[in-house]
Amino acid sequence: MPAEPTRVTGMDVTVGDSGQRMLALMRETFDLPRSLTGDGVRGTLAAVARSVPVEVTEVPSGTRVFDWTVPPEWRVREAHVTAPDGTRVVDAAASPLHLLGYSVPVRQTLSREALLPNLHGLADRPAATPYRTSYWEPRWGFCLPQRDIDALGDGDYAVLIDTELDPEGSMTVGEIVVPGVTSEEVLISTPVCHPGLANDNLSGVAVLAELGRLLHAAGPLRRTHRILFSPGTIGPLWWLHDNLSRLDRVHAGLAVMCAGDPGPITYRRTRDGNQTVDRAMALVLADHETGADIRPFLPWGGDERQYNSPGFRLPIGALTRTPPGEYPENHTSDDDMSLVSAEALTDTLRVILDTIAVLEHDERPVSINPHGEPQLGRRGLTNRRGGEKGNQHEMAMLWVLNLADGDHSLMDCADRSGLPFDVIRSAADDLRAAGLLRS
């Protein structure tokens, strides 16, 4: 994909080598044992912080968050199953996927029949290891290829799970904050809890880390941009609980995940369906060269369902490539680094940057000369001769002038005219420079 600049708030942000930088971050952190809590999340955020400042908050285990409670911190020392002949059937040291997330400690010997209910495989992908968790119910188990489960012989198996669930621990949340010149905020978030999975969702972490780096380099923005890295569900709920008095500042936002696979961009609208972010994303994706899928809100998927709860109704949509649950590798060991590419990661990043650009530049202009159409020719804004059809830029100026009543935005102009937002924005800039518009 060519390294084209994306303009944000009048500054050129170059994404030329962003794809390789995102891949490098993913390779560095792929094997870290991320979960709702623990050092895997801390290590991932520390890696992000090497390129952009990250504000880290430790939320104590036991903290009440609406109807939820921050869980004990889960630590894994070792976990494995040993066959009767002394060989390791499965070992969490080989992959964090092998241990059921939040498994309680176990040390016992079981028959094959007693062991099988605690082994998880996939009948339809017998060579893959599934990703399974038991965050809110005390259980234990292992995940491994179904073909390995089927190959187990009779006899007694030694099970060791040396884990700790520390009620005095904490949940780790990270934020990249790029201050703006107004009190309004754009909130962009991604889950940081999945271990051993590339697209779902280490790709989202990498894209938002690079987004934060680029926005910091872009200089002052109109709005504050807050990028949240947190464990799924409980993390966004904690942030909402901790920021109840500030939620009216959220102008728009995105929940981002599954950002690096080869599928096309998919956008799910907000609960209300016609928020500013929905309109901005629709304008951006209308010109997306590989096509895109815009869908209605669904109360299932990622963190967007928390932000769109009836008690909040925040204007936050969901951005993915192929949504979770819709590609066969999802939540299995087949979701590895081979599934993601620098090109797809960069494309997702550019869509976010382009959407930010629309949100940053949108305004409700007012015509200084509203009584009829002002004479553009004597101001050097048109080269038309009588009877000639205007070009795209001139048509954009006419649309802006006609809708410049203080009630219509530049996005309204783009919607009504069918012209790209960048063309509308450029026309408004020229009209303002000619003394025909005010903000």
Topology diagram in text:
Blueprint: E1 5-8, E2 11-14, H1 18-29, H2 39-48, E3 55-60, E4 64-65, E5 68-69, E6 73-82, E7 88-91, E8 106-111, H3 112-115, E9 119-120, E10 142-143, H4 146-150, E11 156-166, E12 170-178, E13 185-191, H5 198-218, E14 224-230, H6 234-242, E15 250-256, E16 265-268, H7 276-286, E17 292-295, H8 304-307, E18 316-320, H9 342-361, E19 366-367, H10 392-403, H11 410-417, H12 421-433, E20 437-438
Parallel strand pairs: 9-10, 13-14, 13-15, 15-18, 16-17
Antiparallel strand pairs: 1-2, 3-12, 4-5, 6-7, 6-11, 8-11, 12-14, 16-18, 19-20
Helix pairs in contact: 1-5, 1-9, 5-9, 7-9, 10-11, 10-12, 11-12
Description:
The chain folds into three domains: 5-70 and 170-361, Aminopeptidase, CATH 3.40.630.10; 73-166, 3-Layer(bba) Sandwich (Glucose Oxidase, domain 1); 366-438, Orthogonal Bundle (Arc Repressor Mutant, subunit A). The protein starts with a strand and ends with a strand. It has 439 residues and is an alpha/beta fold. Mean pLDDT is 94; it is low at 385-389. It is elongated. The chain contains twelve helices and 20 strands.
Name of the CATH architecture of the largest domain: 3-Layer(aba) Sandwich
Structural class: alpha/beta
CATH topology of the largest domain: Aminopeptidase
Q: How many strands in all?
A: 20
Portion in helices: 25-40%
